[in-house]
Amino acid sequence: MVDLRNGSTVTEFILVGFEQSSSSTRALLFALFLALYSLAMAMNGLIIFITWTDPRLNSPMYFFLGHLSFLDVCFITTTIPQMLIHLVVKNHTVSFASCLTQMYLVFGVGVAECILLAFMAYDRYVAICHPLSYAHIMSRQVCVRLVSTAWFFGLINGILLDYMTFRGPFCRDNHIENFFCEAPIVIALSCGDPQFSLKMIFADAIVVLLSPMVLIVISYARILASILGRTSSSGRGKTFSTCASHLTVVIFFYTSAMFSYMNPRSTHGPDKDKPFSLLYTIITPMCNPIIYSFRNKEMKGAMVRALGRTSLAQAESI
């Protein structure tokens, strides 16, 4: 049956995912990923709640952290629930439109997170290197504009990458060797020459991933120079602790994303793609709130206060 809207004979895709695994393995994976997804949603949801309601966290750093957690919630929700369903049902088909929409959301939210991580590094630079001007430089209006910029470029970039992925006809195999619609794998299924689309996505990845990375490197290079110039060892330790959480998140996210979108397809395969896909679609969003919470006394205190208020409210309602 020919779909005239996209000029191809493929109207749906089949997400292979973990289809080749035994039923017992799929059951174990379902339990594991459901636990990880639940933990990620709970932790990120708690961070969103406390950064938006606790007056003691009324600073640009926590404003950005709240939006990072919101992006993580959006990111994992676009892929993991579908994967969980496919682990327990035999029908792994997704429509052409569903695949396109999922890819757009993954691209849009992923790019927005890349840019937001760069803005968070800049925020740390201003706070450490220009503390007296910090409140003026990183005002509420500036923070809102930076977050809006991240979302804007993410959503616009998603349109471009979606177009480059689905511009050619699809009339070959419709089996996607992953648990979600990932662009390089989908492009490889196109009937036409996929090289142009792959090169465009590679070029886009260079801009989207390396440009924020440059800002991150410059920010932390200046932070390091400022830290080493201080005489107080306690001040150095506190500053290093503040920056370590953000750097850890950056390394997790950028490593997996760069492998997926900046490597030649000849070096890829299902055994290599799935682990990295899992890393940046569920492991990183789950680790982000844990990393920030365990290394930040203010976050720990806010979580204890939030959980304490919840327990008190439950006790009063009984």
Please explain how this structure is put together.
With 318 residues, this protein is mostly helical. The chain has one domain: Up-down Bundle (Rhopdopsin 7-helix transmembrane proteins), CATH 1.20.1070. The chain is built from eleven helices and three strands, in the order βαααβαααβααααα. A three-stranded mixed beta sheet has the order 2-1-3. The termini are far apart. Putative odorant or sperm cell receptor.
Quickly name the level 1 CATH class: Mainly Alpha
Number of domains: 1
Mean pLDDT: 80
CATH superfamily: Rhodopsin 7-helix transmembrane proteins
Taking strands numbered 1, 2, ... along the chain, how are they ordered across the largest sheet? 2-1-3
Using only C-alpha atoms, the radius of gyration works out to: 22 Å
Amino- and carboxy-terminal Cα gap: 60 Å
Features:
318 residues, mainly alpha, Rhopdopsin 7-helix transmembrane proteins, 3-stranded mixed beta sheet, 11 helices, 3 strands, disordered N terminus
Which secondary structure elements does this structure contain, and how are they paired or packed?
Layout: E1 12-15, H1 23-53, H2 60-77, H3 80-88, E2 93-95, H4 96-129, H5 134-137, H6 140-166, E3 175-176, H7 183-187, H8 195-228, H9 233-261, H10 270-294, H11 297-317
Helix pairs in contact: 1-2, 1-3, 1-10, 1-11, 2-4, 2-10, 4-6, 4-8, 4-9, 8-9, 9-10
Structure summarized in a few sentences:
With 318 residues, the protein is mostly helical. The chain is built from eleven helices and three strands.
